[in-house]
Amino acid sequence: MTVGLVLIVFLVTAHFAAYTYVRPVLEERTGLAPGAVALFLLLYGAFGLVGNFAAGAMAARRARSTVLALTAGIALAIALLALFGTTTGVTGLGIALWGLAYGGLSVAGQMWMTQSAPHRIEHITGLYVGVFTAAIALGAFLGGIGVEAAGVTPLLWSAAALAVVALAVGLAGRRGLPRQEPSGSARRPM
After folding, report:
1. Sign, CA torsion 63/68/69/71
2. Over the stretch 116-145, which tens digit does the pLDDT of each residue have?
3. Within 10 Å of residue 154's Cβ, how many Cβ atoms?
4. Is 139:14 a contact under the CB 8 Å cutoff?
């Protein structure tokens, strides 16, 4: 549960640091006109809807793995925009991937949290929503500082790095968890 919440803090902060400034990224880096920016945001939204349903179905069986895959997708999408954001086709691919991955995060993260603490669903749901909301505000705040200090490209790299940190937290967090014995199985003496 704690690993998931920490991952969400880093990942949602990274997402909103970058996504808050996606319009200037698309205009300045890719050179898109306002109408094209609207189409790219529609692409993001359409893939976000698909991601929501797909991640929900996957997370019902493997919530943690789904969240880790979504985290990797968000990191990759932001890195694509940072690295190849001047190329329209790659930018479109990055925006679609970003929408797909972020679209599924909320539902998959919620499933991971409730599966990790099934005896405290109300508590973990409230905590998850609070952490998620605080990370939105933190991301927008840090994004603003980043854009003012260095511009959109360094902001994208910083957000991608923060998403990679979220992925590392999620991957490393598994190592510290004790193995659970199947119900009814006897332990063998050492």
Report:
1. positive
2. 989 999 999 999 999 999 999 999 999 999
3. 13
4. yes
